[in-house]
Design goal:
The chain has 861 residues and is mainly beta. The protein has three domains: 150 residues, Immunoglobulins (Immunoglobulin-like), CATH 2.60.40.10; 95 residues, Ferric Hydroxamate Uptake Protein, Chain A, domain 1 (Beta Complex); 511 residues, TonB-dependent receptor, beta-barrel domain (Maltoporin, Chain A, Beta Barrel), CATH 2.40.170. The strands form six sheets. It has a 22-stranded antiparallel beta barrel. Pfam families: CarbopepD_reg_2, OMP_b-brl_3, Plug. One of its GO terms (molecular function) is carbohydrate binding. InterPro entries: Beta-barrel_TonB_sf, Carb-bd-like_fold, OMP_b-brl_3, Plug_dom, Plug_dom_sf. It is found in: Cell outer membrane. This is Outer membrane receptor proteins, mostly Fe transport.
């Protein structure tokens, strides 16, 4: 009897699937896919991606035993036509892949049991859905509903998280992560790649984990999305004043074989290319990608400084121009192994390689022409970064119950070799005297290990408990040696004053608990994170060791309250406490004389800064638009800041200090609107005030400022498969806050410093306002839009530059830097793919093969 039912169910599903709308991957052929593409081109609508994944298990409601060979079909809501279908396995499991975004009815039938109907919605937030154990009852009906709404767009807003989908960002194609973040609402990137959110530094993750990679080392084409969490819960690391920026790398999950190749060229000798491939069948998913980016770029800058000491006034003017020829290579390979529907093991390996040739010409003029000097710096810099990640995830039959564990191992090395040639000049600019030649060499390495486990368990009908543990271990070492050339013998002598070496270790042990629930339309969440920080360092050449410092365990609470109203409105109030710890470069008590006119020195007495962040938000969604408004307040104790003081007639010393007071408060407004179904506009405005006070040698420096910045992103679908994107931003004058990030493992102090390059100060400096605009045009062509050409122009009006003005009783300074920013890029991309049910296919019985053929129908490509 059972065999007859299996054959009957398979035949019915096979017949139904002949008339179904089959999910077509964008890179594949097929009549329906072509028709859908033609319709999309005609009405300007983008074909939705088909990467949904829904799975579950069918069991007997009374015996709890699995029900095999039951018919599971996914139906359209509009006309109940079959989208796809299958028979459950012998253990009761079913699994649907390559589903398009949308809402469907799932129908499950088996002889002797009542049918099950369940509404299922596929969206960017629910691409993977575990429906749990579905219970079938003899001669009864079980109705279930899963309601999720949302459409994939360039920018998705939520009160707790904002997601920027990079594949929709045309103006960053062929660039780096810096170019991506420049176009993310609420995020600002300066010309050195330093990132701020609401005028403060966030913590930057890659795939949810800390990384030693810098933003210019990550190709834009390797990024899937960027997640911005302005006020993270206790589940996340406490590090970062203004929250977390998580860069999510691409990881294809479509079944069969598919991928993409790209190639691009830009003005000023800029080239990029690469590709990715994914192979998935059954329990195995293998993915790999490779990107190469070779760019020539330039930078210019000036510094005008006046020192006032003991009634004596002296002047310094510096003019610099630099050229750089970096080459980056980014490779990634990984494997997902699906033990079953609810257990997955993933392993991935990243390798990033970079090589630079840098040239800088710095001319210094003292006291308006009394004396001059010219310094030329030629150096080569290289790095290699390896990241290995191992992840395990187990989902339980109960919805939203999950256990995960991961280990991340990162190892990076860097080296630098170069020469500084300083030539004195006469007032007429002619060489005079003997030139001073210095050679520098540096080596550095970093080992960065993180291990964590997280558990989520629903409590009752509306509650959820989250628990987790995390360990972070970081070891860093660096050697920086400088040699002076003897003008007569031409031999080199070791310069002990400029050379240095150091090592340090950081350990962070953390645990958290988080509980959330709802009462009607009221939601709440409370959590506590505890972190133990251990730090130790040494300077081997000096025989100096800094004893391990065990800071008092830090307690970081977070509270979220929300209230939903009619017409899709929501209010939310949240609070969190965060920390930013000084890095070794800020703590090391030695002075950097690499540029004698701009010296730097660390401060071993620095304390961690602690931030209390409060945010009140309102969100409203309409059919074709949404709005998010937030009012926030930030109070930071012991803010890590900098102070500059003059030394002599022409030298400036910059040191790190803890500020006495720092308050920041403001309002951020973000809106997204779709006009006429073809024009998407996202606008973001942040208005804020910052107040800071620093005491240095009994002298108090105060600075306060009201400022604002705005971003506007516009995307228009044009006829003939063209898409136009315009992005503009403006930053009003603001206080110059220092960047507190540890960086990506630089090769020693002074490794790349130009004479005018110095750390901006917050209590003494103001950055002038600036604006910029980017534009991109994309043309899709070939069958199913498998190929595209993108033409992008960054900084259309060439207005992006950095200008800092400092005024203090002992000195004043104007500091301007300009890097190449107006770049025209042309990029070609071709997507390919084919669904193949036989890849890695195990040997099946004849009956199983026949059933699969009947069920798949026209799903094969």
């Amino acid at each position: 009897m059972k065999q007859w039912y299996v054959l009957l169910a398979a035949a019915l599903l096979g017949h139904a699937s002949l008339h179904a709308q089959i999910p077509i991957m964008p890179a594949t052929g097929g009549k329906q896919g072509a028709a859908a593409g033609a319709r999309g081109g005609a009405n300007g609508q983008r074909q939705m991606p088909q990467i949904g994944h829904v799975y579950g298990k069918l069991v007997d409601a009374d015996t709890k035993k699995p029900i095999g060979y039951a018919a599971v079909a996914l139906l359209k809501l509009r006309d109940s036509s079959v989208v796809t279908g299958m028979l459950t396995k012998e253990n009761g499991e079913f699994n649907f892949e390559n589903l398009p975004f949308g809402t469907f009815n799932m129908r499950i039938t088996f002889m002797g049991y009542g049918s099950i109907y369940k509404k299922v919605a596929i969206s960017p937030q629910t691409m993977d859905q575990d429906l749990g154990n579905l219970k079938m009852r003899p001669d009864s009906k079980l109705l279930g509903t899963v309601e999720v709404t949302g459409q994939k767009s360039a920018f998705t807003m939520g009160i707790d998280k904002k997601v920027f989908n990079v594949d929709r960002n045309l103006v960053s194609v062929g660039g780096t992560a810096q170019d991506v973040l420049k176009n993310v609402p609420a995020v600002n990137v300066d010309i050195d790649g330093n990132v701020t959110v609401r005028n403060a530094s966030p913590t930057i993750f890659v795939d949810g984990k800390p990384s030693t990679l810098t933003l210019d080392q990550i190709p834009a084409d390797a990024i899937e999305s960027v997640e911005l969490i302005t006020n993270p819960s206790a589940r996340y690391d406490a590090e970062g004043m203004s929250g977390i920026l998580n860069i999510v790398l691409k990881k294809n999950r479509r079944a069969g074989i598919n991928g993409m190749v790209t190639a691009g060229i830009g003005t000023g000798d800029k080239y990029n290319g690469g590709g990715n491939i994914n192979v998935r069948q059954g329990k195995v998913n293998v993915f790999a990608n490779y990107m190469v980016n070779a760019n020539r770029n330039w930078g210019d800058g000036t510094t005008d400084r006046t020192n006032y000491l003991n009634g004596d006034t002296s002047f310094l003017h510096q003019q610099s121009n630099s050229r750089s020829t970096p080459t980056f290579q980014f490779g990634r390979v990984g494997l997902d192994y699906y033990l079953d529907n609810r257990n997955t093991i993933s392993v991935s390996q990243n390798i990033v390689d970079g090589n630079f040739k840098n040239y800088e010409d710095l001319r210094s003029t003292f006291n308006k022409g009394d004396s001059l000097s010219n310094r030329i710096n030629n150096n080569k810099f290289g790095f290699r970064n390896y990241t290995t990640a191992l992840d395990f995830k187990h989902t339980f039959a109960e919805p939203n119950r999950e256990l995960s564990a991961s280990v991340n191992y990162n190892y990076s090395t860097n080296n630098r070799n170069g020469d500084f040639n300083t030539q004195p000049l006469t007032p007429d600019g002619l060489p005079t005297g003997q030139a001073a030649l210095q050679n520098n060499h540096s080596d550095g390495k970093t080992t960065f290990i993180t291990a964590q486990t997280d558990y989520t368990d629903p409590i009752g009908k509306n509650g959820k408990l989250e628990l987790g543990l995390k360990t972070t271990l970081r070891n860093y070492s660096s050697i920086y040696n400088v040699y002076d050339q003897d003008s007569i013998t031409k031999g080199y002598t070791f310069n002990d004053l400029l050379s240095n070496d150091y090592k340090y270790k950081e350990q962070i042990y953390a645990g958290y608990v988080n509980y959330s629930g709802t009462v009607g339309n009221f939601g709440y969440q409370g959590g506590l994170r505890v972190e133990q920080y251990v730090y130790s360092g040494e300077i081997p050449s000096e025989g100096m060791k800094f004893k391990p410092t065990k800071a008092t365990p830090g307690f970081f609470p977070s509270i979220y309250l929300s209230q939903k109203f009619k017409n899709d409105q929501e209010l939310q109030l949240n609070y969190s406490r965060r920390v930013t710890r000084p890095n070794f470069f800020q703590l090391i008590p030695y002075r950097d004389y690499t540029d004698p006119l701009n010296q730097r020195e660390g401060n071993p007495n620095l304390k961690p800064e602690y931030t209390n962040s409060l945010e009140f938000s309102y969100a409203k969604n309409w059919k074709n638009s949404n709005f998010l408004g937030s009012i926030y307040y930030r109070n930071t104790n012991n803010l890590l800041s900098t102070i500059s003081v003059p030394l002599g007639k022409d030298t400036l010393l910059t040191t790190f200090v803890n500020a006495d007071k720092n308050n920041s408060y403001g309002a951020e407004l973000t809106g997204k609107k779709t006009f006429f179904g073809i024009w998407d506009v996202t606008a973001n405005v942040n208005l804020y005030r910052t107040e800071i006070s620093v005491t240095q040698d009994k002298e108090v420096f105060k600075n306060s400022n009201f400022s604002w910045n705005a971003k506007l992103n516009s995307e228009t679908k044009l006829p003939a498969n063209f898409t136009l994107q315009i992005s503009g931003n403006y930053q009003a004058p603001t206080i110059a806050l220092p960047n507190n990030s540890a960086g990506g493992g630089g090769g020693g102090r002074g490794g790349g410093g130009g004479g005018f390059m110095m750390v901006p100060t917050s209590a003494q400096g103001t950055i002038k306002g600036f604006s910029s605009m980017d534009i991109g045009l994309k043309k899709d062509f070939l069958k199913n839009k498998t190929a595209s050409l993108t033409l992008a122009l960054s900084d259309v009006f060439n207005t992006r530059q950095y200008e800092l003005n400092q005024v203090a009783p002992a000195f004043s300074q104007d500091y301007i830097r300009k890097r190449e920013s107006r770049i025209l890029r042309l990029t070609f991309a071709y997507r390919f793919g084919k669904f193949d049910a036989q890849i890695f296919k195990r040997k099946n019985t004849k009956a199983e093969r026949e059933n699969m053929q009947n069920i798949q129908g026209e799903q094969s490509f």
